Amino acid sequence: MLTDAAIKALKPKDKLYKVTDRDGMYVVVNPSGAVVFGYDYRMHGRPETLTLGRYGPAGWRIGFSCPNVGSVPVLVAGLQ
């Protein structure tokens, strides 16, 4: 599970990498150290990705993002 402590412990590598959570939610850690929230889902049978924003004081935080991940499928379903 992605927690604030778990995300802060993620270290940049030579290439970007993805750390998954649940229900399609994940974070991508860039070589620069930037952490970006994303959500994978399917629309009309095709895989799609929604970038939710950066992690940090000026971006998304765990308290805001993870409890609301349940509402993301509802928003996506409205697009179909």
* General form: globular
* Sequence of secondary-structure elements: HEEEEHH
Helix content: 25-40%
What structural category characterises the helix and strand content? alpha+beta
Main sheet: which strands, in order across? Answer: 1-2-3-4
CATH-defined superfamily:
Integrase, DNA-binding domain
Main CATH class: Alpha Beta
Total of helices: 3
Keywords: DNA integration
InterPro entries: Integrase_DNA-bd_sf (IPR038488), Integrase_DNA_bind_dom (IPR025166), Phage_Integrase (IPR050808)
Protein name: Integrase family protein
Domain Integrase DNA-binding: 2-56
Set out the fold topology:
Elements: H1 4-9, E1 17-20, E2 25-29, E3 35-43, E4 46-54, H2 62-68, H3 71-77
Antiparallel strand pairs: 1-2, 2-3, 3-4
Fill in the keyword field for this structure:
80 residues, alpha+beta, Double Stranded RNA Binding Domain, 4-stranded antiparallel sheet, 3 helices, 25% helix, 34% strand, globular, Integrase family protein, Integrase_DNA_bind_dom
Structure description:
The protein has a 4-stranded antiparallel β-sheet, covered by helices on one side. With 80 residues, the protein is α+β, with helices and mostly antiparallel strands. It has helices at 4-9, 62-68, 71-77, and strands spanning 17-20, 25-29, 35-43, 46-54. It has one domain (4-77): Integrase, DNA-binding domain (Double Stranded RNA Binding Domain), CATH 3.30.160.390. A hairpin with a 4-residue loop joins strand 1 (17-20) and strand 2 (25-29).
